[in-house]
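Hi C.,

You asked whether I'd gotten around to modeling the 421-residue construct. I have! Everything is below, sequence then structure, no commentary in between.
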Amino acid sequence: MRIAIIQFPGSNCERETMLAVKRVGMEPVEFLWNESREKLRAMDGFIIVGGFSYEDRSRAGIIAALDPVMQEIKAQNEKGKPILGICNGAQILVEAGLVPGLENNKIGMVLTENKRVVNGKIQGTGYYNAWVHMRLSDDYQRNAFTRHLVPTDILHVPVAHGEGRFVMTDALLTEVKAQGLHVLQYCDRDGSITDRFPINPNGSLCNIAAISNKAGNVMAIMPHPERTSKGDPLFQSMRDYIANGRVENTVPLYYYPRRTVATVYQKPVPHHERLVELIITDNHALTVQNTLRQLGIPVTVKRRVHWEIQCNVPETIQQIDKSGVLYNERKERVLPPALLKAHASIFFLIRPRENVLGQQKLQILKDHFSIQEVDTIQYGVLWQFTAENVTISDLIDPILHTNIIYNPYAHDCYHYHPALS
């Protein structure tokens, strides 16, 4: 049995994944993103490894999800072959729409920024590295990765990620739970599923550690079962699934995502704006630009961080600027909205629905700089797309359709007009 170990630029877990595959008697075959896709067609299964594909530019997993190789993975999915995405591989599967299995691989959920919650309060965000416990959910789906597990098995495995929190709508969660697609959940050492840190290491909805598609041949898992022999039952199950030649024919989930509509951003009064751009090369913007051009969308891309500050005292804004909390003047500068070059350009302001970073910055200003006259700070990213020899308005839908700058389950998207700011 030959298992393709799929790697993108920035992947870094291929060695331990290959060792795990070997431990259960299968043959790992390294596959780099730029190899011929025909090589994949001879494989019996696929594992998209962990790491930081494309340095998590724009957001974790999205650039790799748009890579042409994922079209071949989607084709192999239709044949019922097992596909496992671990950590960054899970993020790629979610952004590619391969889980939880909506019609036409539509995106139905997001793996977003970690949120460590204790007693209802956020204790931290971002990257977290530790050992956790997980087990099968009470109503788990028997699938390609669960054959060697029973609900009493408690797996002790490591996690190492910054964006591992499963988020979806209540309607989709209801269907996911009814189908048992929330296959693995974080628990304590006794198997109790309790939604608090560190039992739930990232604030994931319903303590979800892994989600499968309805057919049961694709699973996205955030912990790292390949880094310990305790995780071998997942790979043994994958082996037996291949040996039995089981292909499950199913219809997609009933959930159908609503089309998101970008509204126009208008700065409230008395709020203040700060547009922060890099003085050095912005690799995030360049990667988005190159990816869109490869998809046939001919644009030039620029990116700025957008801060909206609610404050009635003008002198306080100057104090905030001097603090260095919102930007680093050694590598960034403030650009007044009036200086944005809007010719042949469109602007999208992307804001996280949970303004965790803005709340953190506000707390730092109050606790460390004694700046108390600020009510709120809202974080966002302003994307600018410019086109030549093409009507820019014709590119709005193609750009948004890629989801490259936002996931509708984690972010809000606004049309931004410099003249209104």
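If it helps when you're writing up: Residues 116 and 122 are 6 Å apart (CA to CA).

Thanks,
B.
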